[in-house]
Every structure is written in C-alpha cells, then in structure tokens.
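Ticket #4471: structure export looks truncated?
Reporter: QA, pipeline team
Priority: medium

Steps to reproduce: submit the single chain below to the structure queue and open the exported record.
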Amino acid sequence: MYFRAIITTALLFATGLVSTVHSQYLPFRTYSIELGLSESVAHTLVQDDRGYIWVGTGFGLNRFDGRSFKQFYEADGLPNNRIHSLYQDQNQTIWVGTETGLSVLHRDSLVTPAEVTGLNSYSILDIYQDSEGNYWFGTDGNGVWMLTAEKELLSIDEKYGLPAERVRAVRQTSDGAMWIGSRESLIKLHDDEVTYFSLTKFSPDLRIRTLQVDEYDRVWAATTVGLLLYENEQFRLYNNEHGLNDNRLQAVSIEAYDRVWLGSESGISLFNGESFRNFTGSDGVPAVIIYATMIDAEGNIWFGTLGGGITVLTGELFESYDIDNGLTNNVVTGFEEDSEGNIWIATYGGGILRYDDGFFTIFREQQGLIDDKVYVIYNDSQNRLWIGTRDGISIYENGQFRSLSQQEFPFRVIRKIKEDPETGDFWIATYNDGVIRLTDSGYVQHHIGNGFLHNTVMDIKRDENGTYWFATYGGVAIFDGHEFTEITIADGLPSNGVIHIHPDHLGNMWFSTFNGVALYDGERVRRLPESGQTETISYFTIQDLEKNYYVGTNVGLYSIVPDVLLNSTETEQRLKAFRLYNRNQGLVANELNAGASFVASDGSVWLGTVEGLSRFWPQRIRKNETPPGLEFEEILVSGREVNPERNYQFNHDQNFVQFSFTGLSYEAPDQIFYQYKMHGLDEGWQITRERTIRYPSLSPGEYLFELRAFNANGVVSTRTADFGFKILQPFYFRWWFVLLVVLLLLAIVLFSIRYFRISKQVDIERMRVQIASDLHDDVGSSLTELALQTDFLQAGQLSDEVKQTLRQLGAHSRKIVSSLDDIVWSIDSRNDTAGDLTDRMQDYVNQVFLNKDVEVLYNFDHLRMDEKLPVDVKENVYLIFKESINNVVKHSNATRVQITFSFSGKTYSLKIEDNGTGINGNRKSGQGLRNIKMRAERIGSEIDIYSNGGFTVKATGSIK
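Actual output as written to the record:
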C-alpha cells in the first residue's frame, strides 16, 4: 500500500494532477466545560443504573445526562475535589475515590462511610468489589486495602507481605483469583497464595496503568510499553511494532473478543486481536491524551481526555471529509461512480475529485475543467464523465477534458444530465433555460416559451417505461415520448418547487420539494407526514441496496418507513417510523445539498452537505434496543421544588405545576421523545420532544402525572415516571364551608322571616292595644255614660212606659258594655297569655256565681301562665268557656263546677263539668250550644258536649 501511494503520487505530479491520502473523520462527539463540565481533565468514568454518566475530574465530580452536567464538590460531601476513581458496586452504589479518601454516592447525595475513614489520608486510585462482596482499594503508595463484607478494613500488604506500592488496578478472574497491578509488578492472589510476575523481560520501563478482565478470563494490562495480554498462562505484548500508534497506554475497555479499545498519550486505538486501528486528532478525536475509557449500556464508547473533556463514539456509520482532510471545497453538490469503482465528487468552487481507496485526486480548471463550480457528474454508456458546471459542460475521457463550445451547447448552469439508453440522446437540465435534448445533430430546447412547465429544472429521471420525469420550480413535468403532462400543487404536491425525483423499486415516484416529500403511485399524490422536527425542505429521497428509504433535509438524513407514515394514524407509530442521523451520529453537517446523494456499488451512501461530505454505511446500523433511562430533574409547584418520590396536597392557589425531566440515551440524545399524561386532565397520551411540561392553572382535584421516554429507535423506557398529588378546594368550596354557608343563609332567611313576623306581630299587637284602648275609652265610656244617664232619667217623674223604655235602654247599654269589654279584652295584646285567660275565666265565674251556693274548682296546676296563645284561640276558647258557664248557671242547677285548662304551646284542652241535672234533651240544639260549636269550628277544635249525671263541655285542639 505504501509503495502504491508513492508511485501513484509520482505519476500524478508528472501529469500535473494533485493526489493526497487523508483519513476520514469519525463521529466523535465531545462534551466539555462549555456544557458545564467542572474541568476539562477527565480521569475516570462510570455509568450508574439510572443511565447517568459520572465523570471524575481534577476538580469535582460531574453527572451527565447527554445534554448538560451537574457538579459536585467538597461542599456537597466529597473528601477532596480531585477524583481518581469511580466504581459502581453490586448494589448499584457508586464509590468515589479521591485524593484524600472515599465517598459513597446514594442517588445524588455523598457520604463517607465510617468503616473507611481509616483511608481518609490516602489517594484512592482504584476500587473493585469481588464476587464475595469484599471491596478492594488500590492506593497511591500505601498498597491494597480490603473492606470485608463484615465491614472490617484490612491491609492486604500487611496480611500477605506485599510491598506497599502504587496500586493502579485490582481485578478478579472467574476462578476467584485477584489480580493486582502496581507500578512495579503484576501480582496474582489466589487461595492465600501470592504469585509475582516479572515483566522486566518486556522492558525495564514497563509500568502498569490499569487492568481489565474479559469474559474469557483474559487479563489485559495497559502499560507504558504497550498492551499486555495474559492468556493461557502466557504473556504477549502488543506495541508500535504491531501498529499501535503510541505505547504509552492509559486505559483499556473490552467491547468484544476482537474489539479492545485503548487510550494512549497520542489518541485512541482499537485492537482486533491482530492489528491496531488508530484514531488521532485528524480523525476527530478532540484531545490527544486519553485517561479513561468506558462502554455504556447502549454500546457507545466513552473516553476521558486531558483538556478535551469527555468524548463518545456512537458507532462508525459515517466517515466524513471536509476541506481540512482532503476536499478542495466544503460545498459538495454531487457524486458519480465510474466503471473502476472510483467515486467522483463534485464541489461548488473546488472542481471535482476522484476518490480511490483513501486517495483524493483533484481536477480543476488547471487540468482543463471548464469551471470549478460543478453541479453534476454523469457517467455515460461509453464511460465518459459529463461534468455540468455553472459555465457549461466538460467531458472527461481518456484522461483528458473536452468542453462543449458555445456553438455546440450555448446553455449554462447545468443541474442534471441523463442519457437516453435507446437513442443515445442526452437530456440536460439547466437552471435558467429549461431542459435541453442534445442529439448528434444538434439540440432541442423545452422552456416556458414553448409550453414547458418552468425554466428551472433541478432533476431528470427515466422510469422503467421510458417516461421522463423532470423536477422543476413549477412542479413535475412528465414526457411520455409524445407530449408533456404535469403534476403541481393543484394535484396534491406540497410545493411546486420540486428539487429531486426518485423512482423506487415498486414503481412509485418520490418528489422532494421545498415543503416536504410526496409520493405518487400513478393515481394520486400523497404527502408524507412531518417528523416533528423543524425541517421544511427536502433535498432528495434515495434507497440503499436493501431498498431502505432515506430523505435528505436541512436538519439531517432521515431513515423512513413509508408504509407506517402513509397508513398509520397514530402519532407514536409515525414518530417511530422516522430515524434522524445528524451531526451527533457523525454526519459532517446537518444541512444537505440538493440532489447530492449517491448509492455506491459497495453499499455505502455518499452525501454532500454545505460543510463537506459524509460516507454513510447503512449495513453498519445497529438498532439500539436498550431502553432509555428516565428521571425527573425537577418538579416545581408555584415556584417551589418538591420531591417526586412523595405524595403532596397543595392549596388551591398552588396550581402552577412544572415538570422537568430527562431521557437518558446517548446514541442520539436529541432524538428522544416523550409521552406524558396528566390523569384527571388529559384525555390521552400526549407526545413531545421538549424536556419541560407546564400546567399553569390546574383546577382543584386529584392528579397523577405519568411520563415515559422513547429512544431514537422507538424503544420505550422500562420505567414510567409518575408523580401523584392533590390540589385542595379553596376553603369556600370545601363541604364544611359550603354547609356552613348554607346553614348561615338558612339562619338568615329564618331570622328574616321570624324578624318580619315578629315585627308584624308587634305592629299588630300595637294596633290591637290601640284599638282596645280606643274602644274602651271612647265607645265603652260612652255606653257606660248612656247607661248611667238612663238610670238618672228613671229617677225623674216619667211615665211607666218611658221608664220601661229607659230600663231596657240601660240594660242593653250594659249588655253592650259587657260584650264590648270581652272584645276589648280579646283585642288587647297584653292579655294573650294563658294566665290572662285563666284570670278572665275566674273573673267571669266570680261574677255569674255571685250569691249562688256553687263550689267552683280550678285545675290549672301544670299550666305555664306566661305562654302566649293566638288571639283567635284565646278569644274563642274564652267564649266557649263563657257560653258553657252560662249554660251551667241557667240550666244545670249544679252545686259544684270543675274547670280544667291546659296548654303546652302546641295543644290546648278546656273542660267544664258540673254535678247538676244536665241539660234538658229539648235544649241540646239551643242557641248557646250552637254558639259553642261555631266557636270550636272557627279554631279547628274538637268539641264534646254531653249530659250524663251533669253537664260537660270539652274542647281540644292544636295550634297551627
């Protein structure tokens, strides 16, 4: 190979061409202090069970989630800010070895266990847990220490008589043997037997930097003189004689039996068991000195560097070139493959290049090219290369360029060239002059002036039926050999600006436009749904040799699954049908160029961008089946951070909830998407690529927020993160307050009603008193005066007839006064109590039984005298009583009368009974009895009147 390069270069210089060999960039992705790493010197790396990457530096411990770092220092619990070692034990606990002792990391809290405080003055260079649960600590100059499973700290050097050296690494093989790598020696400790291995035969300068044991029990040692392998009880040393770029190794990680990654003081090396592949700054490695390596759960290779932070290699899908490693211009516009398998590269301003097994040969205007601004290279049926440029066409044949003259072809800005396999004619797309059909005898121009769709033509394709398809800025023009037809936005195109056409293996035509991609199946045009990213323009659609589809956009290269995109209605399934490859996966730039894609015979896909070219290897795609980690980073409730592992109740005004979270997948961290649902609010799962969700004004109620993450390949996280909480009703909506308000309102209503009734009653009572007073004072006194006047007149000398008239007038006046007195008594509200009623009864009894030998008994023993009776009840009960007493006086001839009256506030009972002869049967319907019944009916009282061994009247009723 080396001699071939010398001979080839000499020949090319002799012919005036320039040829160089360059290494390609690999997709190393770097994270350093710009993203928050506390220091750019990374000594050690480890991944925890949640998925976070932990980085130990010379100044602090860092937690990385794929986007940013969180720092931990002495103030957070570290014994010392200088970190030498990190280790995750069998309980998923991370141990941190520092310049002065150890810390244990529980989630994000650092503590120093009491049982290892004896190592606080030692530098901990390595940490390891053996199969029995014992911890081994390698120190800087203080030998090896062991913390037993019973929490006893022992010095291994004292126990076995080992020299107290700088111990770089401790590892265990499956047979239980412990391997100790120190600065001066390699020691095997097995069943209390110590074996020293002398390594000076390889070099007196050999120093062990670290050890690793693979699944085959092979012991690998990174040393100062190369890679040392112990296998089958024999040592083998691999160094620069075997292709290693630097013998001064610092780190080693085992990916597979034949893939061992090494970090040295000159970059990175990959050992396949026989030879080395080296990566340095020219390959994209950000820093020369590599201190640490680690392989994460997804298979990504991580490196800790001196001065470059950490870097990760997520695969070898892309090999990239730009102006710094071989290209003459970064704007790459097209590709072609010749009959010998060489790839020809068109650039805009740098001419064309021929790529041959790592060699670039440059062809520019100095070599006869008509113009260095090239758009297209086309290999015709005679193995001639047609080069379309801004200034015309050059043809490369037999090592020479020939350009078409103005007379042969007067058109410029050539975008595409296509040979007709049947006629040998060439269809040539131009940017300003439509499409030209070049024949042996001349040319035919199709442009707007003679009916063609548009003068700007970007692409030409011929389908299996011989039909030509032209991508123009006015839509798609179709020529079937006889006439032109067209497909435009009116037919369903997302845009009339069509950039590229791709006929697939199923006979469909794919149109890449300024507004996305559309598929034409011969009957209708259907637009592909958007990916959810920010792209709007599609530069090309292609298929690899396995017929997988890819779309070039302004945000990268998409792998798509058309059946899902066109037929599924579920957003989640559509998102999984997109897979974006961009800078993070090694694409040299996210913005691709129009039509700048080519599938080579070896299966690689060549892609032209605005910043160089990338060679894409679809056959190297490794689908990441590792579920992403998922963690809440922060939950804020009205600005206050809360613990996601607790349940909370919040007041009604604490209703602004913000969730910040992260999905942990490092192959493509920018392509993680999330599903979330707020039970109690959201009807279904929502999808987002954002890492923060806000609910600004939640109503009172119970809520459960659930979240899950999907990696770039659509693999869902095994854990669903959730946070349950309750927002309380404001006190004025809670049941007790509502009940209190209802009761208060009810009380107010009842009070108002009662107040109104009482006020009305008071007014009525005042009026009754006033009426009673007026009747008594005016009417009563006038009648009394009239009665007295008749008496006075009777004393005079009057005829008997006049005196009789005067006596009758006086008697009537006194009768009216008596009746009026009853009315006044009834009306007067001051006489409404039971006591007033019984007093009135007694007064009347005393009046009618005056001078009569009748014993009157009263039974008012349990009567509450101050209890008020309704006016109508009081009046009618009294009149019933009065009429009954009158009947006793007139008809009963009784010697004893018993009067009983009771009133409970709700019911009343009046009973008058005597021991007289009773009432004559002929008088049971007399006027007095009728009056009694009438009075009883007025107040709804039940009346019983019977005469059996005396006269009895009983009236009972209730107050309504």
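Status: closed, not a bug. The export was complete when the record was re-opened. Leaving a note from the reviewer for reference: The chain has nine helices and 71 strands.
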